[in-house]
């Protein structure tokens, strides 16, 4: 069975590279376009798989053209699809992203589709019990909470990619071992003015093993209940930042499976995220282990 299983968003992305943000009610020719699989947990699982760890996605997808692509995309990257339930007659979760060259911005418009919510089957529950890490992202929230409770009862670590402030996420936060919020999430949910304060509040409120706050171009911080430690962003000529956070979380999970300490996992994940930004498409450009190891060494960090 897979060591890392995940429940969360799995998205059919259409990416357009454009020179600048378009003016409303006009036409613009894109420099290029691309179809790619996306979604925080789904892309994180691909990133972990490319780094050599066994992964599986637990979820519901449609049999429409987008869903067919998403299932094949998982298979392409060796993510186990045996725990996916395929439903007919529904619309997939999809998005359109504009990647603007002049300001290096990403603009996303999404349609969550109309798939029914995930209800865990016995097979899916058994897979959670046999895993080492459960990854969640706040999507499929009821199923994610149910899965996190099962994980906690069986000594499985819960890694939460905290991005969206969905109703009810506090319940999931209570079940989290490895809490990795974005800076925006951390500041908003704690009403803090600084990330260091936010990290301490999250740790004291929800009692995870570790809080790691990602801060984009500023790297991030890690708080273990005793001290706050910064980790760097690694250098990259950014072409596409979409999915960089997803790759970070997947690489972090892979680092935990490799028995790295949490600070080493921060470096490992930050470097993986930087490499991803060099190319268009989060899954396609997530690095393999040897590429990541060499990149870290080139930048003065030895695994």
Rg, please?
A: 18 Å
CATH superfamily: Ribokinase
Return the string of H and E elements: EEEHEEHEEEEHEHEHEHHEEEHHHH
| CATH fold title | UDP-N-acetylmuramoyl-L-alanine:D-glutamate ligase
The secondary-structure class comes to alpha/beta
Uncertain stretches of 5 or more adjacent residues? none
Number of extended strands: 15
What is the CATH top level name?
A: Alpha Beta
Terminal CA distance reads 27 Å
Largest sheet strand order: 6-4-1-10-11-12-13-14-15
State the major sheet. Answer: 9 strands, mixed
Number of helices: 11
Helical fraction equals: 25-40%
- Strand content is 15-25%
Integer count of domains: 1
Named CATH architecture = 3-Layer(aba) Sandwich
Global geometry: globular
Give a description of the structure.
- The protein is α/β, with parallel strands linked by helices and 303 residues long.
- It has a single domain (4-20, 31-298), classed as Ribokinase (UDP-N-acetylmuramoyl-L-alanine:D-glutamate ligase, 3-Layer(aba) Sandwich), CATH 3.40.1190.
- It is built from eleven helices and 15 strands.
- The chain has helices at residues 40-50, 65-76, 122-130, 141-153, 169-173, 183-190, 195-206, 244-257, 262-276, 282-285, 289-298; strands at 4-7, 11-18, 32-38, 55-57, 59-62, 79-80, 84-87, 94-100, 105-111, 133-136, 157-162, 178-181, 210-214, 220-223, 228-231.
- The strands form three sheets. It has a nine-stranded mixed β-sheet with strand order 6-4-1-10-11-12-13-14-15, with helices on both faces. A four-stranded mixed β-sheet has the order 3-2-8-9.
- Helix 9 packs across helix 11 (289-298).
- The radius of gyration is 18 Å and the shape is globular.
- The two termini are 27 Å apart.
- The model has no long low-confidence stretch (mean pLDDT 96).
């Amino acid at each position: 069975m897979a060591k890392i299983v995940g429940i969360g968003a799995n998205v059919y992305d259409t990416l357009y590279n454009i020179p600048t943000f378009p003016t409303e009610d006009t036409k613009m020719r894109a420099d290029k376009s691309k179809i790619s699989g996306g979604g925080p947990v789904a892309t994180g699982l691909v990133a972990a798989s490319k780094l050599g760890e066994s992964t599986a996605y637990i979820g519901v997808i449609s049999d429409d053209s987008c869903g067919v692509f998403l299932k094949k995309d998982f298979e392409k990257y060796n993510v186990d699809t045996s725990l996916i339930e395929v439903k007919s007659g529904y619309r997939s979760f999809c998005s359109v992203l504009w990647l603007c060259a002049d300001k290096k911005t990403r603009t996303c418009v999404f349609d969550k589709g109309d798939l029914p919510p995930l209800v865990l089957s016995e097979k899916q529950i058994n897979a959670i019990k046999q895993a080492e890490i459960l990854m969640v992202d706040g999507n499929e929230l009821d199923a994610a909470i149910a899965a996190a409770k099962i994980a906690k009862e069986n000594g499985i670590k819960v890694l939460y990619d905290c991005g969206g402030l969905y109703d009810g996420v506090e319940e999931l936060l209570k079940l989290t071992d490895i809490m990795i919020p974005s800076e925006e999430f951390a500041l908003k949910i704690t009403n803090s003015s600084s990330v260091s304060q936010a990290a301490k509040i999250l740790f004291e409120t929800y009692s995870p093993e570790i809080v790691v706050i990602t801060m984009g171009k500023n790297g991030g911080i890690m708080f273990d209940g005793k001290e706050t430690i910064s980790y760097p962003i690694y250098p990259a000529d950014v072409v596409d930042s979409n999915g960089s956070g997803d790759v970070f979380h997947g690489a972090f999970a892979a680092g935990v499976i490799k028995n790295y300490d949490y600070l080493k996992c921060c470096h490992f994940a930050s470097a993986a995220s930087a490499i991803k930004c060099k190319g268009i498409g989060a899954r396609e450009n997530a690095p393999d282990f040897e590429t990541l190891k060499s990149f870290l060494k080139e930048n003065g960090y030895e695994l």
